[in-house]
Design a protein that fits this description.
This protein is an alpha/beta fold and 258 residues long. It contains 9 helices and 8 strands. It has an 8-stranded mixed beta sheet with strand order 3-2-1-4-5-6-7-8, with helices on both faces. About 2% of the residues have low confidence.
Length: 258
């Protein structure tokens, strides 16, 4: 178990959007940050903008070789990992150029393409768990470590079962349900690791304008990044929490219902 005080983080999907903001905030707070990006050159551009100890790392969480190479690089350089931020996600794998509501309409359970559903879940659920499993030995090597997974309040079964929730029409079988599955997988992991040195937390950025929704969200990326950044930097949050912005909770940082 390492005793080095250097805090080492990996943020997946960190070259843009909420992931970029999280990685930048971690860098500004003294972390050595691996900026995960499927396209290494885009990752390098993002890391250069962040400055400090931000360093690009090629990472496609749906590619076993990419995962293996990224984990090997972190292991060789540090031998441990203080923080994993699971941010990489996709909202669809269909025809480009559609509006958010066109995408949601095509992803209703009655009509959705099963092939597209599999592709989205491959990233959002299976790929996210794959990179987490691969990094668990390095997380266990840290004195204390955390896994922060960026989910979505759209995945909340409680909220989507409420007829008064105006956002429930956006709960589709592809993206929305992938976040429900993600919540279940990482709550399971939190329960498994509750008596270890590794904490597991989930966080929702709210309805943020990013590439995931064709930039049609109601909050800016800076606003939507506030709660994910808070959770990523906090070291005293209870294991197994799922928090979000005031839009979905009684206050910023309130508990999101599962």
């Amino acid at each position: 178990m390492q005793t080095n005080e250097i805090k080492v983080a990996l943020v997946t999907g960190a070259n843009t959007g909420v992931g970029f903001q999280i990685a930048k905030a971690l860098t500004e707070n003294g972390y050595h940050v691996f900026v995960g990006s499927r396209d290494l050159e885009k990752g390098k551009d993002a890391a250069n903008q962040m400055g400090g100890e931000a360093h690009a790392i090629q990472l496609d969480i749906t590619d076993d070789n990419s995962i293996r190479n990224a984990v090997g690089k972190i292991e060789n350089e540090f031998g441990y990992l203080s923080l994993l931020v699971n941010n990489a996600a996709i909202s669809n794998a269909g025809i480009p150029g559609r509006t958010m509501w066109e995408i949601l309409s095509a992803q209703k359970a009655s009509v959705t393409s099963i092939a597209e559903m599999r592709q989205v879940w491959e990233t959002n659920v299976f790929g996210t768990l794959a990179i987490t499993q691969a990094l668990l030995p390095l997380l266990r090597n840290a004195k204390q470590s955390r896994i922060v997974t960026v989910s979505s309040s759209l995945g909340s079964l409680t909220l989507n079962a409420d007829p008064d929730n105006t956002f429930r029409s956006g709960f589709d079988a592809v993206y929305g349900a992938s976040k429900t599955a993600l919540n279940g997988v990482f709550l399971s992991l939190a329960n498994e690791l509750e008596n270890t040195n590794v904490k597991v937390n989930l966080v929702s950025p709210g309805f943020t304008a990013t590439a995931l929704n064709n930039f049609e969200g109601t909050d800016t990326v800076e606003e939507g990044s506030l709660e994910p950044i808070r959770v990523a930097l906090a070291e005293d949050i209870s294991n197994g929490s799922f928090t979000g912005p005031a839009t979905y909770c009684t206050e910023q940082g309130g508990q999101v219902p599962w």
